[in-house]
Specification:
The protein is built from twelve helices and 18 strands. It has 567 residues and is of the alpha/beta class. The protein folds into two domains: 328 residues, FAD/NAD(P)-binding domain; 204 residues. Strand 15 and strand 16 form a beta hairpin. The radius of gyration is 23 Å and the shape is globular.
Length: 567
């Protein structure tokens, strides 16, 4: 057995992961005076060199699609580094009959380098879902407990939006929103006809300078990464102030293997693989914050076995890996013929939606529990590979005739994406695969995933709503879905929306949950989890803002406990 290389230093806290939750924890803890070792499985990110913000498609050999188009599966070569559905040497598996897709990002800042920046608060009712409809469980905390931390996060990172008093979409601390594009106004008018709420969107993108960060210059390429840090990423907004304190030690290329439990029943360190040398090293700390992403954090705890916790660290409840959910997703699109006559004009703006549709049917009985929101967009975006694929399927011809038709149809499409709440079910969870390890020798996850009738009926409602909106706008709805097959009504594969949460959930009862309301383990008092794993439910709001608010709250609690000597 190879020797584990121990660091002689004792840190106050070891944080695992540098994304939304880990970056927030590192900032709050170091600014609070604690020494922090941050373990990140990937390399450092250098925006000026790594981000392709203003690169033209023709500057890459394959227009960004990669050799043989293989980069398209990971959103193309323009995406900010370095997320992938499949990482060489780091597999995961799906159980027979299941198909779960897991997008991982091995780099400082994690998936915040290229996320959609949609920043929505959970609503008060989202914390009391079990009480509302008798399905699932309530959170151990309320909206009022988290609201001050939503305020802190929004004020610090910058989120644009408007105060609308929509009960399903609480208002926040907002910067002015960008003006609607013409396609936004077309959808808005259609929604008004249908009595569907449509309001300015809420994105973590600056429209005014905040803390020295420049406002957005409207190049519309947020997914490529922002050199000016005008949109939020942990690597550019959370990590730099933590580094400036002098209290943060960043250890990159560190693949966490196990959280070490001491004889006193407390976590005392983390064993990790130094990917550059393949040596196993150990960092010691008085408290551990796990923020490696919901499924990666569950994997780490499940692999951290000891005589006291033979089924995984802090897992006396058996809940680690359970209650896995992703957002319900279904997409559609249509064409608006009158846009062919629209004079060419500037469609630039932020790299995301300027308006959106929050859940509007919360005041009536529906065919499914909970709800969904709709993201939409259109217009003349930067042309890329596959831009006219649908045209080629519908039109015959070549040369000047085809080029003329491409110009006529360029920008006349509007796409709509529903994002809704999945209800946790006993058939959806992750566990350690008994026979597969990664190239570091660490056992990998095996996923079980199943959509229930709740989610299928929700996807059906999404498709019906998409069609109604496009037709009310005078357009033709083009998406065709079936009630049959593996993905009825166009429902996406599990994991494809990249909103997986719930695998180390919080709760009031230690018999059915892993963490308390401060993201602190019931079983191991100096162990915290601050990514998507603690979420009890996965409402129709993208989870990142809530992850940061929970991490901020947990970190302040950890600071308070440290001052009291309780860790």
């Amino acid at each position: 057995m190879s020797q584990v290389i121990h660091s002689p230093r004792m840190y106050d806290v070891c944080v695992i992961g540098s994304g939304a939750g880990g970056g927030t924890a590192a900032k709050i803890l170091t600014e609070g005076g604690l020494s922090v070792a941050l373990l990140e499985a990937g390399p450092q990110v250098y925006p000026e060199k790594d981000f392709k913000m203003l690169m033209w498609p023709y500057e890459l050999p394959h227009r960004g699609a990669g050799v043989g188009g293989r980069a398209e599966e990971n959103f193309g070569e323009f995406l900010a580094p370095n997320g992938a559905w499949n990482i060489e040497g780091e597999p995961y598996t799906s159980a027979p009959g299941s198909n779960f897709q897991w997008f991982r990002s091995r780099i400082v800042g994690g998936r915040t380098n290229h996320w959609g920046r949609i920043a929505l608060r959970f609503a008060p009712i989202d914390f009391r879902s079990g009480t509302r409809d008798g399905i699932g469980d309530d959170w151990p905390i309320s909206y009022d407990d988290l609201a001050p931390y939503y305020d802190k996060v929004e004020s610090y990172i910058g989120v644009f939006g408007t105060r609308e008093n929509v009960s399903s979409a609480p208002d926040g601390v907002f910067l002015p929103p960008p003006v609607p594009r013409c396609t936004d106004l077309i959808v808005k008018k259609a929604c008004d006809k249908l009595n569907i709420t449509c309001i300015p969107s809420r994105l973590a993108i600056l429209t005014r300078s905040v803390n020295g960060r420049l406002p957005c210059h409207y190049c519309g390429q947020c997914g490529r990464g922002c050199v000016t840090a005008s949109n939020f990423s942990s690597s550019q907004v959370m990590i730099p102030p933590a580094m400036k304190t002098g209290k943060l030690t960043m250890i990159t290329g560190a693949m966490a293997r196990e959280v070490i439990l001491g004889k006193d029943g407390k976590a005392e360190g983390v064993s990790y693989i130094d990917k550059a040398t393949r040596a196993e090293r150990r960092v010691n700390a008085r408290a551990i914050v796990v923020a490696a992403s919901a499924c990666e954090s569950a994997r780490l705890l499940l692999n951290s076995k000891s005589p006291q916790f033979p089924d995984g660290l802090a897992n006396s409840s058996g809940a680690v890996g359970r209650y896995l959910t992703d957002s319900v997703g279904s997409d559609g699109w249509g064409i608006i013929p009158r846009l062919e006559k629209m004079p060419p004009h500037n469609h630039d703006g932020v790299g995301g939606m300027h308006m959106y549709i929050p859940w509007w049917k919360f005041d009536r009985k529906n065919a499914f529990p909970r709800g969904y929101h709709i993201e939409f967009g259109g217009g003349r975006d930067m042309p890329g590979i596959g831009e006219f694929g649908d045209l080629l399927h519908e039109e015959e011809g070549y040369g000047l005739t085809l080029k003329r038709r491409a110009r006529e149809t360029y920008g006349i499409g509007i796409g709509l994406s529903g994002r809704g709440e999945m209800i946790p079910n006993p058939d959806t969870y992750c566990e350690i695969d008994p026979s597969v390890v990664d190239k570091w020798g660490i056992p990998v996850l095996r996923f079980h995933f199943k959509w229930s009738d709740y989610e299928l009926r929700q996807a059906q409602d999404m498709q019906e709503t998409f069609r109604a909106i496009i037709e009310a706008a005078g357009g033709e709805y083009k998406t065709k879905t079936s009630i049959h097959g593996q993905y009825p009504f166009g429902i996406t594969e599990g994991g494809k929306i990249i909103h997986e949460v719930g695998t180390v959930r919080m709760g009031a009862d230690p018999k059915t949950s892993v963490l308390n309301g401060f993201c602190q383990a019931h079983d191991v008092k100096n162990l915290f989890v601050t990514d998507g794993a603690p979420l009890v439910t996965n409402p129709d709001k993208n989870p990142t803002l809530t992850i940061m608010a929970l991490a901020w709250r947990a970190s302040e609690h950890l600071l308070d406990e440290a001052k009291k000597g309780n860790l």
